Here is the input.
Amino acid sequence: MNGLIEELRGALYTVWSRKWVALAAAWAICVVGWLAVAVIPNSYESRARIFVQLDDPLAEQIGIGVGDRRRDIDRVRQTLTSAVNLEKVIRNTSLGDGITTPKQMEAMILALGKAIKVVSQQDNLFEITAVSSDGSLSDAESARLSHDIVQKMIDIFHEENLAGGRGEMTDTLDFMNQQLAARQKQLEEAEQRRLAFEAKYPELSAGGAGLLQRMEAARTQLRDIDADIAAAQSSLAAINGQLAGTPASMPGAGAGGAKGALAEATAQLSGMRARGLTDSHPDVIAMKNQVAQLRAAAAAEGPGGGVPNPAYSSIQSIRAEKQANLQALQTRRAAAQSDLARIDAQQTENPAVAAEAQRISRDYDVLKQQYDKLLQDREALRLRGQVETERSAVKFQVIDPPTTPRSPSAPNRPLLLFAVLVVGIGGGIAAAFGLGQLRKTFQTSAHLEQALGLPVLGAISLVKTDAFRAIEAKRLRYFMAGSGALGAVFLLLLVSEFVQRQLVA
Here is the structure.
């Protein structure tokens, strides 16, 4: 511990004995450092925050969703710092003063791109910051320039978001109108070809319908009739099975039985013929079938007779109705087959004309579908454009307008001045100590004894006269004045810095 104290005392004596070297080094370092700090230009930063409202019920109703508008805003944000937009900022602010060549413009665009930042704080909240550090401008002009840069960026953001989207919508509508005009012309030409063909071959047009459509309609009708016939046959088979299991008469008292029913059915058949119904009428056919069945039942009944079974008579009526329906369906099927055969015959007789009819009809249908689809899309786009133009689907609002900075954001000049002072004092002490190490002396008898390895018997003290003490006191006052002047210069620089900030404000 004593050795450490001795070393410390020796170092302090070395520095103090060369205090003028330390003061000169401190002054040199501080002057150079303070000049370097003074050369650094002040940077002024301006900020602004923008809020974008994405919710709009009417826009969502026509298909402009929140995701679509968010993608548009992201696109604008990502392209906001493009070279084209930065050139607009330069030409509309004082940055463009003195730029005469494309090379100068490119250099300024690169520098401005590093000074501008667009940060998304939330999905619909953006912050724009711009830093101005032009050393050729005064602090007030530099602060004002940062404000102008941010304001111009906000204007570009607004233009790109609204006017840019409207321009794109206008270009899209123009393209759709051109396509519609071309499709309309092609559709009119196809319609004229179809009308001319129908006028030349009316037998293949059937009132305007193409040969292919007629054949397809006939085939569809034939398939439907076949399905109905299959259902009618199945129903008739079920009724026949039910009729076979039902007795025609039940034993009981009273006259009548199958013979009485036969007489009644014969009377009804005679009445139908009396009304003028022919034998091909469905009701007459059904009644004749019923009379034939009753005759067979009456023959089987014998002379005794019996009571007619009401269920049997009811099932017979239902079966007669099913048979009539089946016969009508078969008649319709024959007619449909005849129509289809006639169309096939027409196609077979003149296959080239039939193929031409199919081609004309197909081309017209395709063009009509394309035209209707384009027309529907064009109207949807027009409605969307009107909503974006009149209602401004994306609501734009500046939450925090661009700030005019009152103090520089960089550098922190007071801290740098103080750091230079500390470095200067430390450098002066280090210079004095280093010089003492180069010119090695023994500050204490202990150091001498340690260096020689011999015992030191004594030390002679320095005897100071009054004249020497006066000179030493005078030199100490000069040293204190020099040190105080260094601190005063530091305080003066601090005061001038704060006064300069007040002038900017």
Q: What stands out?
A: Confidence is low (pLDDT under 50) at residues 57-63. The CA atoms of residues 19 and 425 lie 11 Å apart. The chain is about 70% helix and 5% strand. The radius of gyration is 56 Å.
